[in-house]
Amino acid sequence: MRMNSCITVYKNYDQEKDNEKQVTIVGRRWFERYNGNTYHSAFVYVSTELYAQVNFAYGYGSQYEQTGLEILQEIGYYKITGEHFSNGYSKDFDQLITDIRSGKILSVVSDVKRKKDLIS
After folding, report:
1. pLDDT tens digits, residue range 34-79?
2. Fewest 10 Å CB contacts: which of 9, 14, 48, 99?
3. For 75-103, how does the pLDDT look when each residue is reduced to its tens digit (9 = 90+)?
């Protein structure tokens, strides 16, 4: 296990061995009422095995998918290109959204009531 930023990696993605397995991004969101902020956690599974996770990050809506992209890049599923379209939209994130829409990657999210439920 190694830490890069706030990503905890348990296993790297092997293109040859893991190619036909289902990749899933699981997000959990928590709304902190006092300050009005939303936080999330993100977990990446290949089949049913947890490959990496981020326990606590700021962001609302589908931000957990962006965090999922960073995890997938960290474990070697995607390469980091850093390229953008002329309107500034990330080509890396566009690839993730394309893969989610096509069913290649499954993305699920749930809203939790307590901060500690982000990682439990």
Report:
1. 999 999 999 999 999 999 999 999 999 999 999 999 999 999 999 9
2. 48
3. 999 999 989 999 999 999 999 999 999 99
pLDDT tier for residue 5 given thresholds of 50, 70 and 90: low
* Residue 115, helix vs strand vs coil: helix
Sheet holding 7-9, edge to edge: 2-4, 7-9, 49-58, 37-46, 23-32, 105-112
Please give the helix or strand (H or E) that residue 39 lies within, else none. Answer: strand 37-46
36 φ, ψ to 5°?
A: 75, 25
Give the relative orientation of helices 91-102 and 63-75 as an angle to the nearest 10 degrees: 100
With contact defined as beta carbons under 8 Å apart, do 24 and 106 qualify?
yes
Positive or negative, the Cα torsion across 10, 104, 84, 64? negative
